[in-house]
Each structure stands twice: as C-alpha cells, then as structure tokens.
Amino acid sequence: MRLLLVEDDARIARFVAKGLREEAYAVDVTANGDDALYEAAINSYDLIILDVMIPGRNGFEVCRELRKAGQRVPILMLTARDAVEDRISGLDHGADDYLTKPFEFRELLARLRALLRRSGELRPAQITVADLVLDTGAQSVARAGRNISVTTKEYALLEFLARNAGRVVGRAEIAEHVWDESFDPFSNLIEVYVNRLRRKIESGGGKPLLHTRRGAGYIFGVVSETGVVELPEGAGAAEPRGKGSAAPRKNHA
After folding, report:
1. What is the DSSP secondary-structure string of 37-101?
2. What is the domain range of residue 130?
3. Is the pLDDT of residue 198 over 60?
C-alpha cells in the first residue's frame, strides 16, 4: 500500500517514513501543503498522513481542498495541539482520524490499519492461496508448511498480488501501490522482483501461482482447466482504489 506523509519536521518525517517502510508500506514524503496537494493530484494513495502545522496551506486547508476535489482517500491528521477545538476542526474539514504528538509508533500503525479497514481496504490476518499462506501481521510467508524467506519489498509485492488475486494487475498499478515516487517507470525492477518471488514460492513444487499475461501484467492464483483463476480465502478481485481513472505518474527517468 502506498501512503503520502506530509510532515515539515525532518526528524519526525524520517522516523515515521522509515518505520512505515519497514512495515512494507510504500511512502512518499512532502513538507508543505502545496506540494501535498500536487502529489495527491498526480498519484493514487491508499492513505494520507497529514500534519496540521505545515508551511504554505496548513493541514486543515489541505484536507478541505482534497475533499472539495472529490478525494475519498482516508486522512489521518497529526498535530502537537491537543485542544478539543483543533480535533473537532480537523474532523469537520474532512479528516478521518486525529493523532496527537508525541505518539507511540505502534498506535500510529493501529490507527492506519483501522482507517484502511473502514475504507474497504481490509488487511485480513491471513491470506490463503492454494497452499500458500501469508500472515499479514508477521509479514511471513509459508507454502505447504514450508517457511519462505522474503525481503520487505518482496513481501509487499506478494501481498498486493494476493489481495488482488483473480484479476490482472499491470505494471503501473503495481508501481503505484508497492513503490514510491522514486520508482523509475523505465526500469525492469518489477520484473526482477516478480521473477524472484516466482522462484521462491514455486521452488518446492506445487501448482504455479504467479502468471504473466503478455502485454497486460500479472495474475495471481491457481488456474483451473478452463483457464479461470480460483479466488483465495481472505482476498478478492476488488477494484483498485483511486480517482476513477489512473493518474499519471511522475517521470523519473
């Protein structure tokens, strides 16, 4: 999942972004309100973490502008101000939740999970595809009882594919939700990670799960004799989050 972190305190931004990336989130970071609105307009985010006291347009104004533009992405506001009026103002401007600084990182993670559940982006405790099991809490993978060692990015890609099992996902959609804005669209990084995952999850035998659809992307699941991919437990062929049509990505070539 891809998040936008809007925080002008560089120390806090580094700490939060590092922790979120270790939890397999892709994170873009910006430090002012105008840049936040620009990033949200050109990218598709699953959730936005928005500090209130930022340069340019403040967090309340950014939140209001996002809602006026029709953005339904969940917004978690951060603030050092603990006044009830501030929390009410944030919620009235369209925020979904409010967290006061200083905060425990574990609480931030719990609030993110809760917001994603409310938005329909449920992260079940376990996803099972044939004999492959993903533990989303421990970020662990096993197949036929055999533990499979994966990196944080490999896990993020595998979970995204499993959560979208049964439908074709293209490179652009994978890049939007698994990588951040530093991703080079002209690189073969996605293909490299797909091949790594395929080797790891299929090295012990069993039915192939990760299939390539030439010119379209990838589809995850067990293909039946009729060519239909069987849906796993804990996942479904949900429509991707976004603003109706895919937003263009920055060109970092």
Report:
1. HHHHHHS--SEEEEESS-SSS-HHHHHHHHHHTT----EEEEES---HHHHHHHHHTT-SEEEES
2. 126-230
3. yes
Judge if 66 and 153 occupy the same domain. Answer: no
Q: How many domains does the chain have?
A: 2
pLDDT digits (tens, 9 = 90+) for 121-155: 556 678 888 899 999 878 899 999 999 999 999 99
Q: What angle do CA 239, 243, 248 make, to 5 degrees?
A: 105
Q: What angle do CA 118, 87, 241 make, to 5 degrees?
A: 30
pTM assigned to the model: 0.66
Q: What CATH number did the domain enclosing 67 receive?
A: 3.40.50.2300
What's the CA gap between 166 and 220, in Å, rounded? 6
Residue 37: alpha-carbon gap to chain centroid:
18
Check which CATH number belongs to the domain holding 143 and give it: 1.10.10.10
113 and 145 in a common domain: no
Same domain, 161 and 111: no
Q: What is the distance of C-alpha 111 from the center of its chain?
A: 14
